[in-house]
Amino acid sequence: MAAREIPVYLFTGFLDGGKSTFIQSTLEDRRFNSGEKTLLLRCEEGEVEYDFSSFSGENVFLRTLEEEEDFNESALQAAAEETHCERVIIEYNGMWPMQTLFDNIPDGWIVAQEICFADSNTFSVFNMNMRNLVFDKLQTCDVVVFNRCSEGSDLNGLHRIVRQANRRCNIFYEYPDGRSVMDETVDPLPFDINAPVVQIEDRDYAYFFSDLMENSENYEGKTVEFKGMFPQTTKPMPDSVFAAGRMLMNCCAADTQFAGMACYRGKADRPSPGSWFTVRGKVRLQRNRIFSEKVPVLDVISVKPAIEPEDPVATFY
Questions:
Q1: Are 39 and 79 in contact (CB under 8 A)?
Q2: pLDDT digits (tens, 9 = 90+) for 17-68
Q3: Closest residue by Cα to residue 223 from 144, 276, 293, 302
Q4: Could you read off the pLDDT of 89-126 as tens digits, one per residue?
Q5: Residues 138-151, buried b or exposed e (16+ Cβ, 10 A)?
Q6: Strand, coil or helix: what is 300?
Q7: Which parts of 139-291 fold into alpha helices (H)?
Q8: Which helix (H) or strand (E) holds 241?
Q9: What is the pTM of this model?
């Protein structure tokens, strides 16, 4: 029998970023909370304590998970069954990797929205000293909210940090006087997506791959050309297919992985594993056999041998 679907509202960010305050005001809003049975999972102790007397009804159940190992599937499932909850709110610990959450969330729990909160005055320091954790929280969120902004805040700097990790999320700047300003900065791509052949320079591969994955429909039918490599792999691939891409470093050397796409070579020569080449082809969207969404693949037009670039690892810097 399929697991019962439970919507999850996920709030991430670092201590004093404003998660608890936002959750408190959200649960006080009758448009969101009219008495639904809500499991509130708190994964860190902040300065703000929840005032349950102001919530509508008595159906908000708080459970605290103090250690990362406590955040496991059996504990989460037990809390859901105990409270008979209709939805879950998670105030996630900023020092815990998101993979812990993704690995342990029970079947049927569906993330309906993920919002990341940050203090505009300390975010750049966090990014400088804990870049891997900052990137980890930014890359999957739907919205980023920067609190405690002032007229002197470096909004462009905050914007750039977010966009290096996530090009699709919305960004809001909150001010002490109650104003909430949405970031409407348009980030131009470093290449012409409307050119007859979309030429990707070595320095732009990270931006190309990120945009290709997040906005695949914009590339369907487009002819693209880039320099890539066919990685050595122990998993065999059909002779008609090869992979083309680069190692991509998101935030640090420890967070480096291959970022590429499947290429259907047609009549073109198949490159040797480990070799570098320039590939030109037309992007096609193909349904993934594991996930329901379509993913971009490349119908190859030509493959030419190439010299390994000076910096073979793609970055956003």
A1: yes
A2: 899 999 999 999 988 888 899 999 999 877 778 898 888 767 999 999 999 9
A3: 302
A4: 999 999 999 999 999 999 999 999 999 999 999 999 99
A5: bbbbeebbbbbbee
A6: strand
A7: 155-165, 205-214
A8: strand 241-249
A9: 0.68
Token pair for residue 54?
């102001």
Structure tokens of 192? 């012409």
CA distances from 298 to 52, 260, 287 (A): 54, 10, 13
Give the three-class secondary structure for 217: helix
CB atoms under 10 Å from CB of 312, counted, come to 12
How many angstroms separate the CA atoms of 123 and 159, rounded?
Answer: 11
Helix H or strand E encompassing 101: helix 98-104
SS3 171: strand
**Amino acid residing at 67:** E
- Output DSSP code: residue 86: S
Q: How many residues belong to the chain?
A: 317
Pair of tokens at residue 242: 């090869």
Return d(Cα 1, Cα 70) in angstroms, integer.
Answer: 27
